[in-house]
Amino acid sequence: MHWKQVERRYDFFSIALHWFIAVFTVALFVSGLWMVDLGYYDDWYYQAPWWHKGIGIITALLVIMRWVWTLFRQSPADIRSTPLWQHLVAKLVHKLMNLSILALFISGYVMVTAKGDSLNLFDWLLIPALFSDKSHWVDPAGLIHLWSGYFIIALATLHALAAIKHHFIDKDATLKRMLGINTGELE
Amino acid sequence: MKKTILAMSMLGLSALLPAQAADYVIDTEKAHAFVDFRIQHLGYSWMSGRFNDFAGTFSYDADDPEASTIDVTIDVASVDTNFAERDKHLREKFLETSEYPQASFKSKSFNKMEDGSLVVVGDFTLHGVTKELSFPVEKVGEGDDPWGGYRAGFVGETKFTIADYGIDVSMLGPASQEVYLTLSIEGIRQ
């Protein structure tokens, strides 16, 4: 029987990557908006950016790991009851989220390193700058960072609402298979 | 003959007129001019920075220093404290450079004090607020340069309360409410 080889849920590595990236992305968005307005005497004034940069780099690495893993993993088959246009929109949203993560990663790195300073990863590793004289890139990079952040959160909201709709209204396996639940259904 | 009369009359005329102040352009091209500032950090140390982009002119005559004028315009977004993240923070949260891109100082008068020192009075504009500032100016030197030109250089320093210019720095703590601004300029005579 041929259909038995078709995966019905995501593998646990993909699932772990997905949820870690999801939680980190939301945490980075919230911390990013919060930390830029901290008072100078606030305990978090230096701590918040320290965490934001560290988690940001970790998230970027997880995303790259996910891209590589996607090349090798056995993806579950599309859910047949979902119309083609929804598959296409979902794919587009996924691609745009990937692009936004890339834009966030590059613009964040540029903001920190534009004048030659290294990016401090949890006081454990200094990621070197690629340039020392690009201070005029800092403000554009900041704008890109902010708007990519809004954009990815808007996309993620759409993505999450769609998953909830599939789960509660269509009652299909879309959300379950990212939670690691093998429903046995393909419909 | 005519030429001689003309030359003689001009000579006579120039003797009647006050000394003409020479015009100088501040040498920003070869960076022999600096707009530096420093502010206390927590009351424990000095943090210094500068504005990298500015332009200006002045006129000066050693025989009549009170006729001097100076006009400097600063690109505030060029603030540089040796730390990209802080510079961005200063532009966005304090200087608000997208709204107030320029600062300037335009002299209104130069006054010679009893001890011979020179004090300039002028309008300083920062963060969209214009206020009168006065500070002593010291001539460092003037004379021919090695490349066929003539140069004169000055230095002046003033201190002001940042809040006077509508910039809220209360969160920086009581020791960091004032900033010293130093203008070190060299001009090339035109």
TrEMBL record, chain A:
The chain crosses the membrane at residues 12-34, 54-72, 92-112, 144-164. Keywords: Cell membrane, Electron transport, Heme, Iron, Membrane, Metal-binding, Transmembrane, Transmembrane helix, Transport. SUPFAM superfamilies: Transmembrane di-heme cytochromes. It is a multi-pass membrane protein. InterPro entries: Cyt_b561_bac/Ni-Hgenase (IPR011577), Cytochrome_b561_oxidase (IPR052168), Di-haem_cyt_TM (IPR016174). It comes from the Bacteria. The keyword Transcription regulation does not apply. GO terms for molecular function: electron transfer activity; heme binding; metal ion binding. GO terms for cellular component: plasma membrane. Its cofactor is heme b. Belongs to the cytochrome b561 family. This is Nickel-dependent hydrogenases b-type cytochrome subunit superfamily. It comes from Methylophaga thiooxydans DMS010. The lineage of its organism: Bacteria, Pseudomonadati, Pseudomonadota, Gammaproteobacteria, Thiotrichales.
Automatic annotation (TrEMBL), chain B:
Residues 1-21 form the signal peptide. It comes from the Bacteria. It holds the Pfam family YceI. InterPro entries: Lipid/polyisoprenoid-bd_YceI, TTHA0802/YceI-like_sf. Keywords: Signal. Transmembrane segments: none annotated. Residues 23-188 form the Lipid/polyisoprenoid-binding YceI-like domain. This is YceI like family. It comes from Methylophaga thiooxydans DMS010. The lineage of its organism: Bacteria, Pseudomonadati, Pseudomonadota, Gammaproteobacteria, Thiotrichales.
